[in-house]
Amino acid sequence: MKLPPDHALVRHLLQATLTGEATAVRLRIARREAWGEYWWLSGTRWMGRVLGVEVADDSARIRCESAQVSLKRIGLRRLYSRACSHVLYSAACGATPISGSAEVIRSEGRQVELASLPPEVAGMLAGGWLQTPAGARHMIVSESYAGVELLYPVGLAPQTPVELVAGCDHSMPTCAARFDNLANYGGFPFIPTKNPFSTGVF
User: Fold this and answer.
1) Mean pLDDT score, 105-116
2) Which of the two residues, 27 and 161, has the higher pLDDT score?
3) Which CATH topology does 99-167 take?
4) Could you tell me which residues come within 8 angstroms of residue 197 by beta carbon, excluding any fewer than 6 positions away?
C-alpha cells in the first residue's frame, strides 16, 4: 500500500516502529457506503497486520500481511540472527535511553542543522531519533558535526528545542560498551560459520 510521506497513518507507523509497536498495528480495509449526510462501513474487504513502512521522498510504502497468512504460520516469530532482534529501548531490550537536548538552527528536507550536538549522545545518534516538543519522533539516519540526517523530510522552525536519543547498531560490542546491557542481548553472535552439511564435520 502506498501513501504520501506526510500522511497521518505513515507518521503513526514510523513512531510505532521506534517503540516496537508497529507489528502490533492491525489494518482493516472496508467499503464505505453513503446515504445523505451519513456513511457507514458496509463490509470488510481485507484484514491483516503491518510488517513495516519504508519512506521515500515522494511516497511511503506500507508492507502488510494478510490475517490468513498469520493464522497459517506455526512456531515462534522471533528472528534467529547474529545481530540483536530487540527493538531498542523496548521491554525486551531493557536498555536505559541515552538522550540530550539541542536547538535547531534550520532544517531543509531531511537535513537538520543544530546549534551543537549534546556530548552525551555525540557519535551515537545513527539509529536513534529526534523528538520534537510535541512528542513526534523522527528517526535519525546519520549525524555530522553540523547536525543530523533524518529518515524522511520534516519542517522544524529555527530555535526549536529537540531531544536527541542515541541509537544502536544491534551488535554485541555496542550493547556492552554503550548500554552495559549484555544480559538482555537478543542476538546469537556465536552461530557457527561452517555448515557441516556442505563442508563436513571436521
Assistant:
1) 92
2) 161
3) Elongation Factor Tu (Ef-tu); domain 3 (2.40.30)
4) none
Which residues are registered as beta bridge partners of 67? Answer: none
What distance in Å separates the CA atoms of residue 200 and residue 135, rounded to the nearest whole number? 55
Alpha-carbon separation of residue 201 from 69, 189, 192, 193, 194 (angstroms)? 37, 20, 12, 12, 9
pLDDT per residue as tens digits for the range 112-129: 999 999 999 999 999 999
The domain locations on the chain are 2-72, 99-167
pLDDT at site 161: 95
- 10-40 per-residue burial string, b: 16 or more CB within 10 A, e: under 16: bbebbbbbbebebeebebeeeeeeeeeeeee
Q: Give tens-digit pLDDT for 37-82.
A: 777 777 777 888 887 788 777 788 888 888 777 666 666 666 678 8
Q: Do the Cβ atoms of 80 and 135 come closer than 8 Å? A: no
Phi-psi region of 36 (alpha: psi -120 to 50; beta: other; left: phi over 0): left
Q: Residue 160, Cβ neighbours under 10 Å: how many?
A: 16
Cβ proximity of 42 and 33 under 8 Å: yes
